[in-house]
Amino acid sequence: MADKGGHPGGQGRAPEAGGCDRIRNVALVGHSGAGKTTLVEALLTATGTLQRAGRVEDGTTVSDFDEVEVRQRRSVNLALAPFSYDGVKINLIDTPGYADFVGDLRAGLRAADAALFVISAVDGIDGLTRMLWDECAAVNMPRAIVITKIDQQRGDFDDVVLTCQDVFGEGVAPLYFPVGGEGGLKGLIGLLTQRCFDYSTGARVECEPDPQYAEQMAEQRASLIEGIIQESEDESLMDRYLSGEELNVKSLIGDLETAVARGSFYPVLATSVPHGDHPGPVIGMLELLEVISQAFPSPLEHGIPPVTPVKGGPPREVACDPEGPLVAEVIKTTSDPYVGRISLVRVFSGTLRPDTQVHISGHGMEDRGHEDHDVVERVGALTSPLGKTQRTASSCIAGDICAVAKLTRAETGDTLSDPASPVVMTPWTMPDPLLPVAIRAKSKADEDKLGQALSRLVAEDPTLRLENNSETRQLVLWSMGEAHADVLIDRLRSRYGVEVERTDLRVPLRETFGGKADGLGRHVKQSGGHGQYGICHIEVEPLPSGEGFEFVDKIVGGVIPRQFIPSVEKGVRQQMERGVSAGYPMVDIKVTLYDGKAHSVDSSDMAFQAAGALALKDAASKVPILLLEPVDEMEVLVADEYVGPIMSDLTSRRGRVQGSQAVPGGRTMIKAEVPQLEITRYAIDLRSMSQGTGTFSRRFLRYEPLPTHLAEKVAAGPKDS
């Protein structure tokens, strides 16, 4: 690929898209520390968008501008970095590399038309990167691989390439390989052009490769050409190549670009960015820009998610056409205390313009605190963000990405469309948050502000689920992991001025009878004025697990008038909700009302409610009261090598493994029944045991008796933490 050069754009002016075919939306994917943010800085500098690259260590990078990111020196948010190269507008989407922030990562993949996997030559491939490669493969997302840190002492480019080929399969092949000089890394040799690109002077200089690399170049070039030929639509190429004919390089490059765009070939590139103890030249930016601008697909070549009318009906055909009906999606929402809500939007069809009305539709996220909504709002200003800098944009055409101000109801995942014909896009898949963290406000002032602050966080982050558990009287943030929870709590403090503290999570237990018993309920007050009179006799016996509550009326002779029998049942139910031993609701009992007394004047509905409650408490004092714990049905998906340790761990948590089955890709699905008390932090533990590759799901199954030693501990503990 030829050097196109050129440094259009600049930090003060937003790059403009000359047409749908001149846009490239690229998500940077890779594990934390692989160098994605540093690579963004180098590309922005190489294209003249920045005059000087920032450093992660100094907190001066474009894409890590959130104060949490600056403090932690890692990306926790999706960030957009647009720039121009060779007449093409490139929207780089820098995604977090830590598993806790996979929500932003998946949002970035939704906005992108291709993925650039960033892999460190020092650290290699981690479990999350393997999983994301599989996700991209499932939707046929075009991909390329860039290996960073090739200048570092422990960096081994050739070894990482072999690992990529082993892990990612066929179609992975390097386009260049790095070469050294007296002072360290010198440049790259292009395998197709057979030219050396020397960066030792700071600028790219094309020259003849050193003869010492001839054998290595010939071997790798042959492998690359064979890979390209296999993807070529020209069936004569292989025969011509095998016969010894020298194939036209431009033709090979054309076939390569076509194969990359359709997601069947994955070129590997090499880069080096000076930092810390490695002050060498910046290497590989122009080669990477050429692949992005020439080989990655434009929005015209990448499919659009299914779209259906808001009121229902068959899916609609949507094309990437600036003149078509507006269809756009909110990829990321942020709330600024001063600016208000800002929505990062990918336009799939039509053209988004300031000061026009749009229909905002959000559906299917009620379980995470996002109410279904269909509203019409007016678009505010459009901007093209470069980190925290918002640069004014006059419009945003199909295929492009922009930020929209002041859409007060827009949330991450919402669809924007023409109010005359509103539609909703099929949402992308979001993982379930499985780490519960109980919090409470530190003061009354914090409590007053907490509700609004949490509602804003929920609107921004679809991987967050908010639970206000009336039973345990706790506010619970269901998060993706410890780091995710830390960031949420940090944002409450730094962005919204709300101080909260963590509390021990209470698992909702139940009580039940350990045997059959009779109970007497006597509520008699006749000292002056209108009295209260209600007496009832009940028999209580336990029911099988999951049977709930059964009330049987065996009153004969009218000893309790018919109108007061429901009052007894109501009183029993109310006492069941309050519990009789440790303050937990009672379940799985049968109550038989068989006798009682009433007064012609003083009996009332309230009197017999009180009598029913007293009767249940009296019966409970005569038999053991069992504490029941919730048990979940779990499915744990792990790589085959972790099956043994995971099963042993589940057993140590009082779990019962029900079986396992093989899953394609060298993985196993383990099914087990595990008490909720034992898995409150399982999201963290599983990630540690499986090197970040394990996932799990859970659903409530039933209640079971809590072991005696644990029941005694719970009963003796605080009831209102």
Automatic annotation (TrEMBL):
The keyword Protein biosynthesis applies. It holds the Pfam family GTP_EFTU. Residues 21-300 form the Tr-type G domain. SMART domains: AAA, EFG_C, EFG_IV. It comes from the Bacteria. GO terms for molecular function: GTP binding; GTPase activity; translation elongation factor activity. Keywords: Elongation factor, GTP-binding, Nucleotide-binding, Protein biosynthesis. GO terms for biological process: ribosome disassembly. CDD domains: EF-G_bact, EFG_III, EFG_mtEFG1_IV, EFG_mtEFG_C. PANTHER family: ELONGATION FACTOR G-LIKE PROTEIN, TRANSLATION ELONGATION FACTOR G-RELATED. This is Elongation factor G-like protein. It comes from Actinomadura hallensis. The lineage of its organism: Bacteria, Bacillati, Actinomycetota, Actinomycetes, Streptosporangiales.
